[in-house]
What we know:
It contains 6 helices and 4 strands; from the N terminus they run βαβααβαβαα.
Amino acid sequence: MQTIYPRDGAFAQWPTGQGVLGVAGVAPWATLQFLERLYSLVPANKDWDYPRVIVDLNTRIPSRGRYLELGEEDPSPYIGDTLYELASLGATRVVVVCNTAHILRSRWLPMSPVPVVDIVEAAARDARGVSGGGRVIVLASQSLRRA
């Protein structure tokens, strides 16, 4: 993929060395919610202050839950292909926006040429930081709860 840089006389300064986030979306609403939350956390004054994100929202990837519960087609090779494709498009780090897919992380992670954020570990780390004896409610698929 061609790297896009500002043209001569551009009105916005593009930070050099800023990475590109690749988002492997397998569940549409989770992916949209993730993107909304991501951008809500960025302190931006202008559109160009936000990070560049490349999204592959592919609802045709086989169901993670149906694979784990019913033995249907393994989604891991498809997720691995998505990670490789996002990297080829310029992603320097990728997130797989599906908690249940992370049960299969050991299968698809070796296929990624770039680092992949472990969202389950990140959520657990944040939960451990809850102060005041607060409780954490985990909303998870049946497969993820079992794992």
